[in-house]
Amino acid sequence: MSCLKMYNINPRPRGLILPGGFAVTRFADEAHIADWLWICRDGLIGEDCGPEKFYGELVNLDGPNPYRDTYFIEDVNTGKKIATFTVVPNMWSTGMGYIHMVAVRHEYRGHGLGSFIADYALQLLVGMGKQRIFLLTGDARTAALATYIRAGFLPVNYIDENGLDMVSRWQAVADTLRISDFLLLDDDGTPMTVLHGQDAWGWDHTEEPEEIHALWNTCRLRVTDERFGAVGDGVTCDRAAIQSAIDTAYQLGGGTVLLDANHVFKSGNLILRDRVRLHFEDGAVLLQSSDPADYVRQVRHPGTRSIAYEPCAPLKGHNLYPDIKWSHAWYFNLPFLFAPEHTHDFCIDGHGTVRMMPDDHPEDLLKICPIGFFRAHRFEVADLEITDYHSYAMMPFYSDHGLIRNLTIHNPSHGNGDGICLMNTQHIRVTGCTMNTGDDAVYIFSSYRDPRGMVRPTWWSSEIPQPSLDIEIDHNDLRTDHCKAFGMILWGIDCPDQSLVEVRDIYVHDNHIETLGNWNYNPYTTKKGNPPVSNVRFENNIIDAVEPNFFETVICDMHGFPSSRTVQNGGFEDGTVFWSMKPNTNPASVSVQNYDMTRTDSENTDYGYRYGCISHFDEGDAALYQGLYLYAGRPYCFWAKVRSGSDAPRMFVRDADTGEIICTKDFCAADWTAAAMEFTVPHDGNYHIGFCRGDARVGFAHVDNVTLHGYHENAQGFVRVACDPQRDWKPLYFNNAKLWE
């Protein structure tokens, strides 16, 4: 069977870091042929293949040269070569870069080596000036396909030697990997169509949001109808009836399930479904059952629409694992209203109440999260009251494109009664909510390999991280009896690729926040520091108090509070994290590239192996900068190692709030050289310092080892005037001391 083809057009390498304990080496002599065969025989080539296979793939083809193009990954502890890949700068005289013969020994899979190889190969080819890169693979290599897709590769349609196209084969890949929007390219690289993969229940993802809202109104099922049989008396368990209505709406293609006004529906946990809206009519109450026999988990039958459940009693207790801090029961018990992985286009709304079970007998409490999602997409939760809860109120983990509005969360009955925990979420808005919680009210959680998601099968995991991006918190009243009303828990520092745990593009405005603070201490690691945080904007908030940990957090490009005082990731070894990027019409105009480590001239430096790049000046201005807090009247020196094309790009300092340019300096250097710009600023505040096109219309700017020499201090603008009344060891900083009175 012919191979599947994939293109990466205008590639943007992620700058992944090789996991610890491994090293990249090169093919050096024919003794390495045996290493190459040993690796590739583990699933890539036949077990009986000999050296002729090596010569056929890497010597006798038009393109590859193993001495130039073939790499190994070596286990530094054993000295064994355990993975290989080949990066060809001009395959089959097409002028395109090519990634060839990628293989990892099975005993080393699961360490992130495949992702690193894909990204490292892209970095090498981009460094050679390749803007179109391709590879060939097979239908059955689903793990490799998923890795290439995450690296930015897209499927390509072409006509093979038998006159067949690739559409049906790529559709099967989309279905297998459950990809909702899979852009298929023609062989010339132009978009052809969008494929929609099926989820685990056999439905495709085709509707636009307005179509989903219309769909919710075409089918309306009342849980008290005779065919479902809910009672709503607060005594009878109505779980099966409500679940049946949800499943029926799902099987019909979508719709609304109604909980009758002024009824109390006692229930065990419920599983939410694609395209289904669970609507509380006025005064409807969903009451958590205290009977462990009322709880279930779903049993999936892939490829069918059949739905089944089996008993699954919640675990009792609070912290279940003494050796793991904060191993709360609700991290292991299924949530009360649960959207499992890949659930999409669903809603929970209405002027009703989610009420958790009474705590008359604390030893019998079934502590579960009232509302929890994992890797769910396109959802809305609105207008509800969540009360009498014994856990975090809402846990939309690793979910995206969600609107959470007008919730009232109050009356936590036990400790650790957080409000909304946004773990590794993207494109989320929390608006119009009123909270008075027993612990943190709303927080953004950056997590990686949290052991609470690894000690037993759970409904969530942070094994495969994703960054927290594009989150808006607005028009909320956030109060807490303990800890922070709003903040960030930054526990991703162990992730090898910091771009996968960064927090970026956060907008917090028009809120009342009783206490603001962050968690930078990760109890599950000995590694110090917090993952990257950048572009955080605070506007028009009333903030009563700020904990000192907020000022200790390294945040670049912040508005409303002082940004970091020092340049972070100035050598670009962690990719673009901490840096703000302004590309022009070409998305590749701002990037991070690798030095060619095979060269022996001045490019082969002691400054690491990555540098920042702005380019494609003919397509508009492009900029790469950091937002830092600077002090008036104090001398600063902005220093970097730079090189450029024939037109001179520019270093700049500008006021982050007004956009006023404070200082600029053009530079032009064909080889790496030092550039320095001394300056002062007119007032204390946040400023952008970085690099842009300036007056140049062609060429590029490469930058590395960016530093800022100057004066730094903490908590500027906030004064320590008191200690927390509940924790006298914790000082509080106030912008207005009268608030304390």
Q: What percent of the residues sit in helical stretches (DSSP H or I)?
A: 10-25%
* Strand residues, percent: 35-45%
What's the β-strand tally?
51
SS summary, helix count: 9
Question: How is the main sheet built?
Answer: 13 strands, parallel
Spatial gap, N to C terminus: 77 Å
**Uncertain parts:** 199-208, 711-718, 735-741
Average pLDDT reading: 89
- What's the multimeric state? single chain
Radius of gyration using CA atoms only: 28 Å
Report the structural category. Answer: mainly beta
Outline, from the CA principal axes? globular
Structure description:
This protein is mainly beta and 741 residues long. Helices cover 11% and strands 37% of the residues. It is built from nine helices and 51 strands. Strands 11, 13, 16, 21, 24, 27, 28, 30, 31, 33, 34, 36 and 38 form a 13-stranded parallel beta sheet that branches. An eleven-stranded parallel beta sheet has the order 10-12-15-20-23-26-29-32-35-37-39. It has a seven-stranded mixed beta sheet with strand order 2-3-4-5-6-1-7, with helices on both faces. Strand 5, helix 4 and strand 6 form a beta-alpha-beta unit. The longest helix has 15 residues. The protein is globular.
